[in-house]
Structures are given as structure tokens and as C-alpha cells.
Design goal:
heterodimer; A: 662 residues; alpha+beta; 4 domains; five-stranded antiparallel beta sheet; 21 strands; 47% helix; elongated; B: 307 residues; alpha/beta; Rossmann fold; Helicase, Ruva Protein, domain 3; 2 domains; five-stranded parallel beta sheet; two-stranded antiparallel ribbon; 13 helices
Chain lengths: 662, 307
């Protein structure tokens, strides 16, 4: 548009005001992604621009702008680590966008600013991909398109421009959806090159000490969501399995040396549950499969003790589809496993040891009897399920079992496993989550950090590994009602009640569910639309039957047909073009243009002749003849019944060569 | 129309242009447009500083076309009757007699029209529009042809009443004469005052010829393509331009008529887009006004493609 008169028409103040505010809005979500200094420069330039709307004399000159550009570049480079391309790039873009706003003299400059703005807007998705950002970006995008449309008009009419912008986005939407669904996906999205978001994540670790889980009990943060494709299991079967701990040093449980091999799982296919897990970033590799996992996707592995792990730590939200069975039998107990499952810390208090021996003696050869005896002891003696067990002087297990009798799940699991081992029964500690809150709006279960739990598995000769949850013996409501119904009372004890909530908390919960469902839906349908899911969609559409080459051929063919249709539509004469004389004029103009003479659209036939003669003096005769005849047929007495054929012939007689250029 | 007749008309008109060119040196485009305006039966507004030849142009035009000429200097104390005429009681036959004012001329030069009060201005403009004067219940037709050249001084606007936009629309064209270029000015300085020269001019036409020419203007062919073009220009000025308001239908009619006159002046029997573009600045500039120093006419021309 540079040569056009429009470009010289100044932009009015409302336009520039809207432009400045819109571009400011485009840069705003970068808050937090780029250094405050760069953002400060951006904000300053925006303010400057706003003030200059009313005091144009304040606009910076060329040299000051150049200086500011260097300053912006230096700031961007100095306060971001160069290694991180996304951060540096966004910082530079934001800084330059602000400066370009100070350099708007003509309409062409606005085009540049808007282009920069689009980049700034879209680089935000390198850092976050949530629905809220998308919901913010779309209206800003519509405004920017509107501003770009308004650039082509002399008078700025915001409402009309906005309507045009929205219409354009709407028209583009089907294409965007088609590209989203059909454009081949990379296995990892482009932005997964990203930086570690794993910092400061609370969650389960693979070391269990007294109080470790208690620390999580009040965290509302979401660990993962699960969606059962069939029926959901009962609360008592919702054990989400995480790290399995074998080694106890008297204070801390840890995984110990990894044991190679695979678990042999026999399960009842009737009890198979199919579900999707959406893990929140944890920075760890465990995937909390339901006890016990029997079907895993290709990128997950189950170890010998049935821990499910991903190849890489989970650094961004990711979706897995798994199968678990709740009636199962795992008989595997390799010799190293037996050794590890019977390991006893070097220092064990005599009192604890004696207790174990007494129980063993009471049930000779009956391991199940020992298990029941311990659980009975937990149930009958005044043990309390509490978040604040107090500080243990000396041996924590002895203190817990004989003195305080107050503890959270890790106290019970830890003591139970030690007692079992002392009694010669192979046992281990499993950490994970238990329960979860059902979100009826999203039809999925939300498992929070507060649902973290520790339980045990013991190996019985005829049954194999079975799950024993000593916490259930003390506080069965923990399992039945779940942590979301837990309340902490004055002395730190947990009480559970499922009394119907007040209307207010009900409404609050409904709102939370809604937000959660929207968030999860966005992830499931948009962000989680991975290469595999795309493949499975194609399969469902029947493309897999064609084979790869045939599918590629079909897609190419469709593309070619679409392109052809578009081309034909673009060639379709519209109302004005259907005038044959106008077609001839258009053809003449195109011929001159191809030969290197671009005529402004407002040139009449005489002006066009003058320009053409100056360029191709050797063609004076045919050019003049054509022009004369054209004028006579178009504007003169012949206009009622023009002889287009003769004109076409004359047009063909004009020989324009690019070499004739003077 | 006969081509021969046309050619002769064009020759005669060009002779007038030549003769005027001797008086107003180096101002051929202005002269052609002024003549075009007259051929198109339009009134002309000349806006310029004093002393560039506004009066000379008007006077010379009147002489060459054989029109009777009146010059009227507008002042702030002028009343409508000073222009239109006044009824005076005649004691001898005991009745009122209308004494025609200076407006009853074929070519009226209304000098510094913006010095008069709006009341007086509108009396003139109404007469211009209706081609007649009404006083005391009687109507007197103005002579045929009737042509007003008004001048306006754009500077020193203190104590003046600039014409409102609605009245500007009554003038078909607004022209600026501008200072002569150095060569023309040297010639002017050498040869001295043009006043005597104007007095010596011999008429090259008479009012009958002029009316004949005006009829020939109406006969210039405007093909549908040209009508489309003019309509596109009008529509653009209303819908897409920065102008409030855009061009009126009257402006459109005037534009087409002026373009026809221009074509006749140049010996063409049919309108071309170039003719429209040639007269467009003079016809639309005072109607659209300037916005932020951008030439409205240029913008309009360059924004509308030729269909």
C-alpha cells in the first residue's frame, strides 16, 4: 500500500488509542515470562505512545529510537539466559513491539506493529497452554484483525471493524479446526523443549519417614485425574499405586536396590477396569495406576514390584490409558525379593522385637493369623488417626506402638511392615493415593495431594502378595469416606463425616467442579490431542485400511481438488467482471503488468496509453490503435454493441518485451 | 452530433482560451476550467488573494463571450435590495416600479462575497439557484445565460462571513488562480497593465452561440461505463472516505456536466474517465474540504479504480 494515497492519510486518534491498548493487551500475559525490566520498557513505551497521542511533539526522533532499540536488545539479552531461546525471543519481540509503536508515521508502520503483535501473542503459548490463556488470546486476536482491516479504510469505525474482524476469524475457524485434526502431529509438541516446570512441586517422594504424608494432608493441589471408561471401582478399591519401598533403616523407608524381572499377574478379566489418567506435572516418573495394573500403554513400564513408570519424569500434563484389575494374584517372590522383603534395620528396639516374637509364637505357621493379630491390636488398643502425632523421642516405632499410639498412615504402614518382617513375613510399604473426589460435571475423579496414603503388602505362601492397609483398621472412614470428608479437630485428630454440606459450600464445590471440568476438557480435547490420538481418530475414520501410501495419496488428492476448486472460484467472474469490455481492459492491464508496467487502477485509457508509449515507443501503432478502438467501443458511440472480438485481436497484435525498457 | 460541428465548436472555444491566455499569462488550466464551468452552466467561485487577476479573468471572459458584465463589490452594509433591485414609488403614475439591480446581468462578478452578511449572501445564492428574482409579488427572470463569478479572499477573515458548506454546493467549481510563474510575471511586468488590453478585446461569440454550446455540452455521450465510474466516485466519498458528508447527488450531476463541457472544449464527442478526473478537483474540493492537509480530490481519484 506504500504507493497508494491511502497510506498518506493519517490515522486518527481513536485508532491509535485502540491500537496501543490492544497491543498492550497482547503483551500483557508475558508477565512472568520475561524480566520485569523488559516489561518495564514495554510499559514505558506504551505510556509514552498514549501521552504522545495528545502531545505529538513528544515522539522520539530517529536517533533516540535507535538508542532505545539497542537498550531494549541489551535488556532482553542481559536478563534472560541466552540458552533459553523462547525467553530471549519473546523478550526481544516485546521490547521491539513497544518501540515500533513509537515509530508509527504511516499506515505501513501499523502493519509492521500488528505483525509483531501477532508474534508476541502466539509466543505466549510457548510458556502456557491453558484454556484461560486461549480464552484471553482470542478476543485480543479479533481486535488485532479488526485493526488490520480498518487500516484499509480511510475513516475508522470501530464497531464495523470489529464486526469484520470477528467475521474473518469465524470464516477461518473451520480451516483451523481441520488443520488441528488432520495436520500431522509431532510426537512431542514443539513447546515441550521447554524448561523445567518441575520446581516447587509438592507431592510424593520415594522416601517415607514419619510425617512425610502428613505434610501433604492439607494440600488441595491436584495430583492427577482419572476417568473410568466403564464402571468406577468402590472406594475401598481405589488404591493408586506409586513407589514401592523395600528398605528400612529404622527411620526412613526407601526403595532400595531395584529388583530386576517382571511380576506375574493373574487376574480376573471380569474385574478389569479401563481408565484414563491425566497426570499433573510431578517431576517424577511414577504413574499412579490403580491397584493392580495389567494393561499399559507402550511408553510405560511396570517393574517387578508393579510400580508403573514413564520413560521420562512427568514435566507437563500428560494423558495415559491403562487397565487394572481388582481381583488378582501376584505370586512372584524371587530370592532377592524375599531377602529384601525381610530386611530389618540394624537397630530395632527390644520391645518391638519381643512383640513380634510373641505374635509369631501365638500363631505358629499361620502368617495370615499374625497379620490379623496386628490389625486387631491396632483396632482394639486406643490407637488414634491423627495428623499431629507429636515428636518421638528415641525409637519412633517403639514410641508409636507402645506410648503415643497416635499416628498418620505412614506410622501404621511403617510399624506394620517392621512387625511383619520381624515375624518372618515378607512385607513392603507402598505409597500412593487412596480415594479421590468425583467430579460429576467432568465425569472424572480428582485425586489431590491430600489423598496421599501409605499402605502395606505382605506375601502369604498360598495367596502371594496381598494388600493390607493398617490405617483401615484404625480409621475405616479414611477409606470409606475419603479425605475430602476429613476434618481436623482440636488435638489434631482426623474425624470423618459425610453430612450433607451447606448450600454455600455446595455451590462452591459445584463451581470448583465446573472449573475443573472445563480445565480437564480443554486438556483432553485440545492439548492432549497427541500423535497417537490423531492416529486412532484416523483409524476410526477408516484411513488405516488404506495403508500409508494410499492414505497419503488420498490426502494429497483431496488437497489438490480443494486447491483446484479454490482456484476456479477465484477465477469465477463476479458481476463487474462479467462485462466483456471490462475483461478486455483487465487483460490489457495484466499484459502491461507482466511486461513490467504496473498501472495504477485509476488510470484511464489515455493515461495508460501515455505510460505505455513512454515505455515501448516501438509499439506506438498497435498501442494507439487498440486504445482508440477501445475508447470508441467502451465510451463512444460503439458502447451499446461493442465488437470485443476485434479488440481481442488488436490486443494480441501488441508485442511488449521486457527488453524494451529504457 | 456532427463531427464537423463539434470540431468547429472546439476550435472556437480554443480560440477563446488562447485569447484569455494572453490576458492571464501562464494560467491555461485555470482558464480552461473557468470556461468549462461556464459551458456547464455552473457558477464559479474563485478563492485567492487580491491582485492575481480574478477580476481581469471575469471581465475578459465577459468581453470575449459578448456578455453584458456587472461588477459588484460586496460590503458588510450591503442589503439584498442592493443586488436584486428595488421598487420605487413613481409619483407621476402613482405606482411602484421595480428598478432592476446589478444582478440582472449575464455575467455578474460578485467581488469578495464573504464580506456581505449571510442575509445578503443568501439573496444572491437563491437568485443564482432559481435563475429569477422575486420582489413585491412579481417575478423577474434573470437573463440567459446567467453566470456568477464570485471571489473570496481566504486570508484576513476578520469581519467576514465565510460561505457555509451548504452554500458552497451552489458553486459548480472553486478555482485558485495563484501567482504567475517567473516567466509570466516578467512578461506581465514588461507589458504593463492588462486593463486596457481587456477593453480592446473583441467578442468571439455572442449569447446565442454560448447557448448553442451549452446545448452541445448536453449532447456529449456518457457511456454506461462512465456513469458507473462517476457513481463509484460518489459512493466512495460517502461510504469509505473520511469526509462528512460525502458528495451530494447535485455534486454528481455537476461533476458529470463539467466533465461533458471539458470534453466539448477538447473536441471530444464522448466522455472518458480522464475528463472526469480533469474537472474533479475543481468540482469536489470545496465540497469535501481538506482533512489534515490531504488533498481530498487526489485521494478520491486514486482510491476508485476505473471500471
Amino acid at each position: 500500500m506504500s504507493d497508494c494515497a491511502l497510506d498518506r492519510i493519517p490515522l486518527d486518534r481513536p485508532y491509535l488509542l485502540m491500537l496501543t491498548l490492544t497491543l498492550g493487551a497482547a503483551g500483557l500475559p508475558h508477565w512472568g515470562n520475561i524480566h520485569p525490566f523488559v516489561l518495564g520498557l514495554f510499559g514505558t513505551t506504551l505510556l509514552w505512545r498514549l501521552v504522545a497521542l495528545y502531545r505529538p511533539a513528544l515522539l522520539p526522533g530517529r536517533w533516540l529510537l535507535a538508542l532505545l532499540a539497542i537498550l531494549g536488545l541489551l535488556l532482553a539479552l542481559a536478563y534472560t539466559s541466552v540458552r533459553d531461546g523462547a525467553h530471549v525471543g519473546s523478550a526481544v519481540l516485546v521490547a521491539m513491539l513497544g518501540l515500533k509503536l513509537l515509530e508509527i508515521h504511516r499506515r505501513r508502520d501499523v502493519e509492521v506493529a500488528l505483525l509483531l503483535g501477532y508474534f508476541v501473542l502466539f509466543t505466549q503459548f510457548l510458556f502456557r497452554q491453558d484454556l484461560w490463556l486461549a480464552a484471553y488470546v482470542l478476543p485480543v486476536l479479533a481486535l488485532m484483525v479488526a485493526l488490520q482491516l480498518a487500516l484499509g479504510r480511510i475513516r475508522f469505525e470501530p464497531v464495523e471493524a470489529l464486526r469484520g474482524g470477528l467475521r474473518l476469524l469465524l470464516v477461518a475457524a473451520p480451516l483451523a479446526v481441520a488443520l488441528f485434526v488432520f495436520f500431522p502431529r509431532l510426537d512431542s509438541p514443539l513447546w515441550s523443549i521447554q524448561h523445567d516446570t518441575g520446581q516447587g512441586i509438592t507431592g510424593i517422594s520415594d522416601h517415607l519417614y514419619m510425617g512425610a504424608i502428613g505434610e501433604l494432608a492439607e494440600s488441595e493441589e491436584i495430583a492427577f485425574r482419572a476417568r473410568f471408561l466403564g464402571e468406577a471401582p468402590t472406594p475401598a478399591r481405589r488404591y493408586w499405586r506409586g513407589p514401592v519401598l523395600w528398605r528400612f533403616d529404622g527411620l526412613i523407608w526407601s526403595p532400595g536396590k531395584p529388583i530386576p524381572g517382571e511380576a506375574e499377574v493373574q487376574f480376573d478379566p471380569e474385574t478389569l477396569l479401563d481408565y484414563e489418567l491425566t497426570m499433573e506435572p510431578s517431576g517424577q516418573r511414577w504413574i499412579y495406576a490403580l491397584d493392580v495394573p495389567v494393561q499399559l500403554p507402550a511408553d510405560l513400564r511396570a517393574s517387578a514390584d508393579l510400580q508403573v513408570r514413564a520413560d521420562q519424569p512427568v514435566r507437563s500434563r500428560s494423558l495415559y490409558r491403562l487397565g487394572s484389575a481388582w481381583r488378582y494374584q501376584v505370586m512372584t517372590l524371587a530370592p532377592d525379593q524375599r531377602t529384601a522383603a525381610l530386611q530389618i534395620p540394624p537397630q530395632v528396639s527390644d520391645k518391638v522385637r519381643t512383640l513380634a516374637q510373641t505374635l509369631r509364637a501365638a500363631h505358629p505357621g499361620d502368617d495370615a493369623g499374625v497379620v490379623q493379630a496386628v490389625l486387631k491390636r491396632f483396632h482394639e488398643q486406643p490407637f488414634v488417626y491423627t495428623l499431629s502425632p507429636g515428636v518421638a523421642p528415641g525409637d519412633p516405632v517403639e514410641h508409636f506402638l507402645f506410648e503415643s499410639r497416635r499416628g498418620f498412615c505412614e506410622h501404621y504402614a511403617s510399624s506394620f511392615a517392621l512387625l511383619m518382617r520381624l515375624a518372618g513375613i515378607p512385607s513392603r510399604v507402598v505409597i500412593g493415593y487412596q480415594g479421590g473426589e468425583y467430579n460429576p460435571m467432568g465425569d472424572h475423579w480428582i485425586v489431590r495431594q491430600s489423598d496421599a496414603h501409605a499402605w502395606n503388602e505382605v506375601w502369604l505362601p498360598d495367596k502371594g502378595w496381598i494388600r493390607v492397609d493398617p490405617t483401615a483398621a484404625v480409621a475405616p472412614e479414611r477409606i470409606e469416606l475419603g479425605m475430602e470428608n476429613a476434618r481436623r479437630i482440636a488435638d489434631g485428630r482426623m474425624v470423618f463425616d459425610a453430612t450433607p454440606p451447606s448450600w454455600f459450600s455446595k455451590a462452591l464445590r459445584q463451581g470448583r467442579w465446573l472449573l475443573d471440568a472445563v480445565d480437564q476438557g480443554w486438556y483432553r480435547w485440545v492439548l492432549g490431542f497427541s500423535a497417537q490420538r490423531q492416529q486412532s481418530l484416523w483409524d476410526r475414520l477408516g484411513l488405516e485400511r488404506l495403508g500409508e501410501f494410499a492414505a497419503a495419496a488420498v490426502i494429497t488428492l483431496l488437497g489438490v481438488i480443494a486447491a483446484l476448486v479454490l482456484w476456479l472460484v477465484s477465477r469465477l467472474p463476479d458481476r463487474a467482471d462479467s462485462d466483456p469490455m471490462q475483461q478486455i481492459w483487465g487483460r490489457y492491464r495484466r499484459r502491461l503488468q507482466r511486461a513490467g508496467l504496473e498501472l495504477p487502477p485509476w488510470y484511464g485509457p489515455r493515461d495508460a496509453l501515455k505510460a505505455a508509449l513512454a515505455r515501448w515507443p516501438g509499439q506506438a501503432r498497435p498501442l494507439r490503435t487498440f486504445t482508440r478502438r477501445y475508447i470508441a467501443q467502451r465510451y463512444g458511440p460503439g458502447s451499446a454493441n461493442p465488437d470485443t472480438r476485434a479488440l481481442r485481436r488488436l490486443l494480441r497484435q501488441i508485442r511488449l518485451s521486457r527488453r524494451n525498457r529504457r | 452530433m456532427q463531427a464537423a460541428e463539434q470540431a468547429s465548436t472546439s476550435e472556437q472555444l480554443q480560440a477563446i482560451v488562447e485569447a484569455l491566455g494572453d490576458i492571464l499569462i501562464g494560467k491555461r488550466p485555470v482558464i480552461e476550467l473557468a470556461l468549462t464551468c461556464l459551458l456547464a452552466r455552473g457558477h464559479l467561485l474563485i478563492e485567492d488573494v487580491p491582485g492575481v487577476g480574478k477580476t481581469t479573468l471575469a471581465h475578459a471572459l465577459a468581453r470575449l463571450l459578448g456578455l453584458d458584465y456587472q461588477r459588484l463589490q460586496f460590503t458588510s452594509d450591503m442589503l439584498p435590495a442592493d443586488i436584486l433591485g428595488v421598487s420605487i414609488y413613481d409619483r407621476e403614475d402613482g405606482s411602484f416600479h421595480f428598478h432592476k439591480g446589478p444582478i440582472f446581468a449575464q455575467l455578474l462578478l460578485a467581488d469578495e462575497i464573504n464580506r456581505a452578511t449571510p442575509k445578503t449572501q443568501s439573496a444572491l445564492l437563491e437568485a443564482m439557484e432559481e435563475q429569477q428574482v422575486t420582489a413585491d409579488g412579481h417575478t423577474w427572470a434573470l437573463p440567459e445565460p446567467f453566470f456568477v463569478i464570485a471571489t473570496q479572499n481566504p486570508l484576513y477573515q476578520i469581519g467576514t462571513y465565510p460561505l457555509p458548506e451548504s452554500q458552497l454546493d451552489r458553486f459548480l467549481m472553486r478555482l485558485h488562480i495563484g501567482y504567475p510563474d517567473p516567466a509570466a510575471e516578467r512578461r506581465l511586468l514588461t507589458e504593463g497593465d492588462r486593463h486596457a488590453q481587456v477593453e480592446r478585446l473583441l467578442p468571439l461569440a455572442d449569447d446565442a452561440t454560448l447557448q448553442d454550446w451549452q446545448q452541445q455540452v448536453d449532447a456529449v455521450v456518457a457511456a454506461p461505463a462512465i456513469i458507473d465510474y462517476v457513481q463509484a466516485l460518489l459512493q466512495f466519498s460517502r461510504e469509505a472516505g473520511p469526509w462528512q458528508p460525502g458528495l451530494s447527488p447535485r455534486a454528481g450531476l455537476g461533476l458529470l456536466r463539467a466533465a461533458r463541457a471539458w470534453a466539448l472544449l477538447h473536441g471530444e464527442a464522448h466522455l472518458l474517465p480522464e475528463h472526469v478526473q480533469a474537472v474533479l478537483p475543481a468540482v469536489v474540493a470545496h465540497r469535501l474540504g481538506e482533512i489534515d492537509g490531504v488533498d481530498s480530490a487526489r485521494t478520491l481519484i486514486e482510491s476508485v479504480p476505473i471500471p
